[in-house]
Specification:
The protein is an alpha+beta fold and 104 residues long. It has a single domain, classed as 3-Layer(aba) Sandwich (Endonuclease, Chain A).
């Protein structure tokens, strides 16, 4: 778990949203996990750090692996939201999650 994930978790708790499962494993065969998941709502959240510094999610192999994982999640019926560090820090991630959960 990253500092960004911990920050988003604190925001979620602060506003009283339902508690998500963290590091939810949605595929046993591939060992894929979501950073956050509201299983009953089939809502998953991924926090992508390093978007401006050449982090894993923006480099070729990492980006391709993310595409494969997120496509499999959508096929399995999950709605997947992705957020950058700036979106977490600004509160945009939290607002989008509230809307997706119908809590706005």
């Amino acid at each position: 778990m990253s500092a960004l994930e911990d920050s988003l978790a604190a925001h979620i708790r602060y506003v009283g949203l339902p508690e998500p499962q963290r590091q939810y494993r949605f595929s046993l065969s591939r060992r894929w996990r979501f950073d956050f998941c509201w299983v009953d709502s089939m809502l998953a959240v991924e926090v992508d750090g390093g978007t401006w510094t050449g982090g894993r999610h923006t480099r070729g192999a990492g980006f391709e692996a993310d595409c494969e994982k997120l496509n499999a999640a959508v096929i399995a019926g999950f709605r997947v939201l992705r957020f950058t560090g700036a979106m977490v820090r600004s509160g945009a991630a939290l607002a989008t999650i509230e809307t997706a959960l119908g809590c706005d």
